[in-house]
């Protein structure tokens, strides 16, 4: 990671209230290196420029870090090129992490990233979310279930069976996803909106996290 890239990472993370130490930055740098190589073989991200990847994708993923539990299992649905899952693993390698990605080639990339960074408590699974829920090690086991590349209705449908009774679901969306627009969906799924978290990326793009839990 170049000094400019490290500066962008540190500044952007600080704006999000996330502390990035040398080890975290090193892990993220190794991830970006691998992503750059793999992007030449298969299209993991539309953006190829390293600074754009940091500003637009890495920092967006880091916004989830304050929502991670002290202990427990984190499940990332639709991990694709590793956002947010691999970045969350770089920030919190102590947490058990399962990356759910149905496409085999992206899963191969995720597995290599896990080996090379390394993230010993992470595992990439080449399964659909619906299939993952049939695994007793995953069914209702997610302390946090997160999805970035999914519409909120798809995240709720596939993520709810994976969510632990006291767990939280983190939907990475835009401000267009309002409480009014999801109220019926949440009611049908017996989920409660705990809070929004709005933030901006360095390019000015507005983003929103919806933090959901099971209704009691």
Keywords summarizing the entry:
8 helices, alpha/beta, 7-stranded mixed β-sheet, Rossmann fold, 216 residues, 39% helix
Question: Stretches where pLDDT falls below 50 for ≥5 residues?
Answer: none
Strand order of the largest sheet: 3-2-1-4-5-7-6
Main sheet attributes: strand count, strand direction, barrel closure: 7 strands, mixed
Strand portion, in percent? 15-25%
By CATH reckoning, the class would read Alpha Beta
Word description of this protein:
It contains eight helices and seven strands. It is α/β, with parallel strands linked by helices. It has one domain: Rossmann fold (3-Layer(aba) Sandwich). Helix 1 runs parallel beside helix 3. The longest helix has 17 residues. The termini are far apart.
What's this model, at a glance?
The chain is 39% helix and 23% strand. The protein has 216 residues and is α/β, with parallel strands linked by helices.
């Amino acid at each position: 990671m170049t000094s400019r890239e490290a500066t962008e990472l540190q500044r952007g993370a600080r704006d999000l209230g996330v502390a990035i130490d040398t080890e975290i930055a090193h892990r993220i740098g190794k991830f970006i290196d691998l992503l750059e190589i793999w992007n030449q073989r298969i299209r993991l991200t539309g953006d190829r420029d390293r600074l754009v990847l940091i500003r637009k994708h890495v920092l967006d993923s880091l916004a989830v870090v304050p929502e991670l539990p002290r202990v427990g299992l984190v499940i990332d649905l639709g991990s694709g090129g590793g956002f947010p899952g691999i970045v969350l693993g770089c920030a919190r390698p102590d947490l058990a992490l399962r990356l759910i990605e149905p496409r085999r080639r992206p899963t191969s990339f995720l597995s290599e990233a896990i080996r090379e960074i390394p993230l010993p408590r992470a595992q990439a699974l080449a399964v659909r979310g619906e299939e993952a829920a049939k695994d007793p090690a995953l069914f209702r086991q997610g302390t946090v279930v997160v999805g970035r590349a999914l519409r909120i209705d798809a995240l709720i449908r596939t993520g709810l069976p994976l969510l632990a009774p006291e767990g939280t679901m983190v939907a990475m969306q835009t401000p267009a996803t309002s409480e009014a627009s999801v109220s019926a969906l949440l009611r049908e799924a017996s989920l409660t909106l705990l809070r929004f978290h709005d933030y901006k990326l360095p390019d000015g793009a507005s983003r929103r996290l919806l933090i959901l839990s099971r209704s009691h």
